[in-house]
Specification:
The complex is a heterodimer. By secondary structure, chain A is an alpha/beta fold. Chain A is built from eight helices and eight strands; from the N terminus they run αβαβαβααβββαβαβα. Helices cover 37% and strands 18% of the residues of chain A. In chain A, strands 2-1-3-4-8-7 form a six-stranded parallel beta sheet, with helices on both faces. A two-stranded antiparallel sheet of chain A has the order 5-6. Helices cover 45% and strands 20% of the residues of chain B. The chains are: A alpha/beta, B alpha/beta. Bound molecules: thiamine diphosphate.
């Protein structure tokens, strides 16, 4: 089965307004943003936000960071926002999360079917790979693929409040967007995040 | 002497709440103790670097954790160790050594020999337990160094000689 390099350009969901909607008014939500475009999307949506931890590396680690945080903060909703490429590098995390379930953990994948940051090379999701099916098989309580604006509100409420772990694979258009860089000093990010949670 | 029990007492005293691991036979007793302790959340990983990201999240959320692995798992962690370093997060690792003493499996030897160097290359502090009676003190020192002295990444290597040679009955 070969990859379809072009179909992602015809997808209708746009990542910037989507992420802005996911984070809108969710002031208590703790967010881990995967490296590259998902981190830029979060920064574009909210500007600097103490409860968002943008990654600039650690590729493959965003979902697991979400799990550690969710286990440490069981009464707070935790959302990992990441790319398909980033998730694929640490795919075992779906298995680990499914087996160590955290009811307050959600993962939003911004699936443009590409490694956008490095030149738009297709990922396996440009073929038959179904991330939501993988998550379901691993034991996620809810996992679905969303392609249309009409499904966004239901997906948002699942991400923000359904018993987790929850994964939503948002099929988003492959597009070049302006880079909006968040803070990148790790110790600064760490301190402001922990202070915002009241654990520093 | 029950050195895994002594280590577990130190982890409890340090209020370690998440214990992540890919199993190693040398950690089997410590894992049983942790499984029996309701205050400690045991997370079984598919690969060791997941544990570094997990414990980064745990610390961001205000909990201390520990990552258990055998020496070959250190090789799986290299890039992710950069997360702890860049963000100056505490990271406590307990590594059971293979491939350094009375090893019967040649496949364990390359990573066993490389383990201290790989950790040093990622600027991780390396401590070592050679004798059972030193286990408690060394782990207590590692806890302090990881969570108070940096925060920093600290690995405690547990000598293969202490664990005992694995033979698979051969
Ligand atoms: C270990 C490692 N390998 C490769 C890279 C290079 N890299 C940076 S971002 C990226 C692609 C990310 O793709 P995805 O998560 O799908 O995000 P997108 O930009 O497509 O939204 C890659 C391969 C890296 N940073 N780290």
């Amino acid at each position: 089965m070969s990859l379809d390099r072009d179909r992602a350009e015809r997808l209708s969901l746009r990542r910037r307004p989507l992420v802005a909607r996911l984070l809108e008014g969710a002031d208590e939500l703790a967010v881990i943003a995967g490296l590259g475009a998902p981190a830029w999307d979060c920064a574009a949506a909210t500007g600097e936000r103490a409860l968002t931890f943008p990654l600039w590396g650690a590729m493959g680690g965003a979902a697991m960071m979400g799990l550690g945080l969710a286990l440490a903060q069981p009464r707070r909703r935790v959302l990992t926002v990441t790319g398909d490429g980033e998730l694929l590098m640490g795919l075992g995390a779906l298995v680990t999360i499914g087996a160590a379930p955290a009811a307050n953990l959600a993962i939003a994948v911004l699936d443009n079917e590409r490694y956008g940051e490095t030149g738009g090379q297709p990922t396996a999701t440009a073929g038959v790979l179904d991330l939501a099916a993988l998550a379901r098989a691993a034991g996620f309580r809810e996992a679905l693929t969303v392609r249309d604006q009409a499904e966004v509100e239901r997906a948002r409420s699942l991400l923000l409040s359904a018993p987790g772990p929850v994964l939503v694979d948002f099929k988003v258009r492959a597009e070049d967007l302006p880079i909006v860089m968040p803070e990148k000093d790790g110790a600064t990010l760490r301190d402001r995040f922990r202070r915002a949670l009241g654990v520093a | 002497m029950d050195w895994p029990g002594a280590i577990f007492e130190q982890l409890k005293a340090a209020d370690v709440r998440q214990l992540a691991h890919v199993p190693d036979a040398g950690h089997a007793r410590l894992l049983r103790l942790a499984e029996a302790e309701p205050k400690v959340r045991v997370v079984t990983l598919t690969t060791e670097e997941e544990g570094i990201a997990l414990l980064a999240g745990a610390w961001l959320g205000g909990q201390r954790g520990v990552l258990l692995m055998q020496s070959s798992g250190v090789g799986n962690c290299i890039n992710m160790l950069g997360l702890a370093k860049t963000c100056r997060l505490p990271l406590l690792m307990l590594v059971t050594m293979r491939g350094e003493w009375a090893e019967f499996n040649p496949w364990q030897v390359p990573m066993g020999r490389a383990t201290p160097g790989v950790l040093a290359a990622m600027d991780t502090a390396v401590l070592r337990i050679e004798r059972a009676e030193d286990a408690a003190e060394t782990v207590a020192g590692a806890v302090r160094l990881a969570f108070e002295g940096g925060p920093a990444a600290v690995a405690v290597l547990i000598a293969q000689r202490l664990i005992g040679a694995k033979t698979f009955g051969k």
